[in-house]
Structures are given as C-alpha cells and as structure tokens.
Amino acid sequence: MNKLDQLRAMTDVVADTGDIDAIERLKPQDATTNPSLLLKAAKMPRFEKVVETVRAGEYSRAGACDQFSVAVGTEIIKLIPGRISTEVDARLSFDTKATVLKARELVALYDQQGISSDRILIKIAATWEGIRAAEILEREGIQCNLTLVFGFAQAQACADAGVFLISPFVGRILDWYLANTDLQVTQPAEDPGVQSVIQIYDHYKSHCYDTVVMGASFRNVGEVEALAGCDRLTISPDLMEAMSGNHETLVRALAPTTNTLDAPLALTESDFRWQTNDDAMVVDKLSDGIRRFAADQVSLEHLLMRDH
To answer: How far is Cα 98 from Cα 93, in angstroms, rounded to an integer?
Structure first.
C-alpha cells in the first residue's frame, strides 16, 4: 500500500480543500472548508453557475456567503461518506449569541438541501466566546469543529465544553517559531506544531475525553507522518497526492494510552484568558487567523455581490 492508504488504516483522512475534483479523486472520509478555501472555490469554473445563482438572488452580503458555502458543502457531501465542516463568519468570533444564531442558520440551509445535521460540523474559532457557543450548540445536537487551536488551554477548554472535534494547527505554529525565534527544525519530532498536537492527543486519551483531535494546517508530509494514528488529519490535496505516490512503510506515531487519569478541573474564564495570553505564539496566530479568515470572507462577499 502507498503511504496515504497506510494512513487511512490508522487515521480518518480529511480533505482540506474546496476543490471538488480533488475530493472526487482522493476519496477522503470527511472534508473541511473555510473562507479562504471558499474564495478559491468561487473562482473555479466548477462553481461558476453557483456564483451566478447566488448573485441573482436577493441576499445580504452575509446571506450570499452562507448560500455559497452551503452550496459548495452540498456538492462535497455527495462525494464523501462522512461530514463537511462549514465555518461561521470569523467576524463573529467574540460574540457567543451571534455565533449560535449563525450556526443554526447554516444547519437550516443544509436541511433545505435535504442534508441532516449529522453530516455537518460547524467550524468556530476557539476563542472563549466561540467555545461557549459550541457548548450550547452541542447540547442542541449541532456538533462543532473548533478551529484555530494553537494552545493547550484552548484544547482543554474545548474538551471541558464537550466539543465534538478540535483542529490544532500544526504548520502555522511552526511558521511562528521560524519567524520569531532561532529554532531550527531538522526532523518532525522537533516541530513545535507536531509537539503541540501530541500533547493534546495524549491529554485527551489519558483523561478519556471524547473530543476528536484532528491535526490541520500541514506544511510538509513529514508533519503528517509524525502524527500518523491521530484521530483525524485534514490534509491538502497536494500532500495527499505526495503520500499516495510513496510506497515506503508508514510507522504509527500516536496510539491511545492504557493509563487513564481523573479529569482535571475545568478551566475558568480567567484561567483560559491568562494561559492563552501568556503565550505570544497563541496570541499572534489566533488573532492573525481570525483576521485572515475575516478578510477572505469580505473578499468572498465582494465577489458574490459584484452585480448588486
């Protein structure tokens, strides 16, 4: 078997793309989208008619983006056995009530397309307010993917809240360390993004949390291979194809521990905010990620509303 098939035997492989052709070719279990990927999708010939249909509708800017993201998600769901992750507007990242309302609207739009909520994960930035919104949604049966996870406090608070899945960002953590320190990484084990996911995974498994760990934002195949065995990994088509062309043996790197520990006390809001703000990398990358997604959301709005 090639390395991608070997990975599938130990980890649920998720496609990190809005490229329908790549999803059809690579056959992942799940797929994830975000405003950046949707902006790329809106410029693809495959979605030209969808863009035209949205432009012809009487939608607000936010409504047009919701219609387009659900339309893309609906096409993707036809090609995968699992779930599509659809992201809430990043500009709502610090508004619990608005995030909950937007998530319900997205689920309702999918329902209009005949797609049940058990095929959807609502992506929300892992701010304190976002985690609280996810806690409410999970109680309603709307399962969530908490994204832009860079620090352990974010991961711990998500588990405390009973979130279905988190997406720790591997490559963006490495980017920060390479740009802001003298760190030199010569092998994946030295990669701080890889180390972060391993710490979270071991914590979850040793304390018997049900929250799924899905490593994301990979810069190279070495990072992916260093996390083989993680619950899920969301991988770009380029890296998936690189793995599919390699037939060397892939060694499992992560496996659940048999030693279980009592769950720690839930983080308070003040503890969460202090631990998050005490780490410059987390502060920088979380705020940067939210800004970037928000900027691409605005660009997508302009593209979809060009004729209005």
So the answer is: 9
